[in-house]
Design goal:
By secondary structure, the protein is an alpha/beta fold. It has two domains: about 130 residues, Aspartate Aminotransferase, domain 1 (Alpha-Beta Complex); about 230 residues, Type I PLP-dependent aspartate aminotransferase-like (Major domain) (Aspartate Aminotransferase, domain 2). It has a seven-stranded mixed β-sheet with strand order 2-8-7-6-5-3-4. A three-stranded antiparallel β-sheet has the order 9-12-11, with helices on one face. Strands 1-10 form a two-stranded parallel sheet. The radius of gyration is 23 Å and the shape is globular. The protein starts with a helix and ends with a helix.
Amino acid sequence: MSPSPLEDRLATLLEKRRAQSRLRSLKSSPAGSVDFSSNDFLSLSTNRDFQHEYLASLNQSHTPLGSTGSRLLDGNSQYAESLEREIAAFHGAPAGLLTNSGYDANVSLFTFLPQKGDVVVYDELIHASVHDGMKQCRAKDQIPFRHNDVTDLKRVLARLASPASAHRTVFVAVETVYSMDGDLAPLTEIVELLEAMFPAHNAHLVVDEAHATGIYGPNGSGRVCELGLEKRVSIRLHTFGKALASNGAIILCSPVIRLYLINYARPLIYTTFMSYPNLVAIKTAYTWLQMGKVNMLAANLFRLINHFYTRLLTLTTLASEATDESGVPLVVLPTACPESPIFALMSGHPRSLASHCQAAGFIVRPVVAPTVPQGTERVRVCLHSGNTIEQIDSFIECAKTWILTESSGTGTTSRRSVQDERQLLAKL
């Protein structure tokens, strides 16, 4: 049967994306590969003790596996409500609302919480889920500020902080740890700025802790808790699909905001709630946090971060001298040790570097526009507590080999045609 007009149009769009080297596909990693890519920062997803405790907890109950419906119908349970209260108390929040994903949580917050006449101010590198929420938002004034730049944030807020504007609410959206660069938001400075400029308390900070959960703060409670800002941040989002080896998220907020979202947030209302096994996985993860069982894992993770950066420094001279045929540096290394497990190896040839590392058994991914701004393409490296010194050393040697090969003119970047680039992208 010949393609329909719809399929023809879709095929044209896909071919356009392929021609722009932006076509995505689903791939799985070969067995035995070394993970330097996933968000499994504490390596709980492969931790045998964690798996054993999860399965033991799961087998203790006769609760139905599926939630069977939306929380507003039959999908709610005493277990879910108890878990919400427990997590909220752990993070020092007055209330919490579980959601199926961090994406659903951000879309719910930024679509339905701001009202007509309100303003949303956001870091220019905020997550795509916040943008998707703002697209449907009733507050049409949406203003970005330069990434992590408190001075620029102050410039933006100065236009909104007049006494005559006290009737409208200003929402400021930031992340505690940014997923592509791995840098940390200046939370304390932002909180102090909002308190000074909005004495009428009509400005609210919304903090996404997705990449901080389990790693920072007392027993992995996050950056807000680490900085003692629990009572000064209006809304927090913690996700469970990264360091906590589960999936889903929780919105930490006031009881009034929680009830409002239950009544108005369509991604929460019109979807089947997460299953009981998923709730048990979240409960197991928070039991580990509460008991301090992740503290040694987090400490080892930061030890590996320091080792990785120390080993990268051995490539500094080589990287500074290695260029492609156009005279552009093959790779630009971090100039300071990251404060998170996320390293950005900046390169104009991220697919070539990633392909070389993958062939050597390392899972890393090229990140290109539009995921990151044009000209900031990179290979993103994520470390995990379960990685070893030997794995890191081998990866550094692998990257060194790529730099030497490419700078000598015998590598793929010096002889790859446009068609070759497209074929390589399809493999990645």
